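FIELD: query
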Amino acid sequence: MDRPRYAAYEAIEAVHRDDAYANLVLPAVLRDAGLTGRDAAFATELTYGTLRHLGTLDAILTTAAGRDVQRIDPPVRDALRIGAYQLLHTRVPAHAAVSSTVDLVRAVGQGATGFANAVLREVAGSDIDEWVTRLAPPIETDPIGHLALAYSHPQWIVRAFSEALGGDLGETTRLLIEDNVRPAVHLCARPGLADPVELADEVNGAPGAFSPYAVYLGGGAPGELAAVADGRAHVQDEGSQLVASALAEAPVDGADGRWLDLCAGPGGKSALLGALAAQRDARLTAVEVAEHRARLVASATRGLPVTVLHTDGRLVGAEAKLPAEHFDRVLVDAPCTGLGSLRRRPESRWRRKPSDLSALTRLQRELLVAGLRAVRPGGVVAYVTCSPHTVETHVTVTEAARRCGAPVDFLDARPLLPAGMPGLGDGPTVQLWPHRHGTDAMFLALLRRT
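FIELD: result
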């Protein structure tokens, strides 16, 4: 059995069978298989590439098999997906992709080798552009349906992206393309503990384009870096760094020593804010409702002026350690659909449903109202989501500001991001984008209690 392909199969099987996350399950699979170097890279490419392109692959396999892909036995189905990905999206020779996949099917789906061979040969008869032309609806009459099949996203997500981009189909296409490209790993050089230029040299990376703390990692496993192990740096998307540092730089009236992260898990933004707080004689309270995530926050912020509370952030004013009108700066990094990080979590695009929005947006409003209750007059709240969906961004912020029962003003977030950063819109809020900025699609709104 080809070990990299079988490792990819095991990871994808776990994603579909156990609702696992690829970024969590794959490292263990690679370690157990003893894969390193090029073999590990190939298994990683097959895993993430297959998951990203799943929608288009399934449409092609349905046609090639002459039956709905959901009627194919799950182990055989996942093996065929890996084989189709190799045929349509890699330089693996067709004969090698077919034969190796048939071997995989022989191991996981007894009696299906002839079927697999026939299906894959049908897939190999056309390239990806020909399949899209054959299967996608015309872009002139159904642009959302066309883009969804061509770039392997659910239609509701394509529609949400298009609406957030003002209906610009060209820019929506560029975003979908970027979503299907494996992103670089970004490190955050913790201020006061690491210099980003020196860190870039140390890890054979490059300083980030926008965040003053960002380092782009050239390759390798970030968890094995000495700078990460000793707490001088942590893995964090550059967009997350930018929105956290914008809160730290926002002007406040009066005192500036009590900071709050109301939804802190797993701790990346708390770590950056804690390092900044240490330089300014401030202290951060990091709140996390899930116990295991609270432990992650405590681990991420060890040695920094951060107090971790395992409680519900909505209890501001009712929890003794979360008094109302007490904090100078408040971060509300609210739970969301995560549509802004589909590059990093490819399985999420197939798990999320439009029906998820109702409960999430209600929680977002409640947390933002709590954040506005926690901040003192003259202080600032940053509302952040890793989603560009307008219901999770503009609608949530507007509704929470209206319901909070206190006067608030929107601050223009654009001047608090690096000078010359393109594509920040008309303000006062900011939406970052993978295709414009190379970051996750982070949304930022800054509100001041007046």
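FIELD: remark
The first helix runs from residue 3 to 18.
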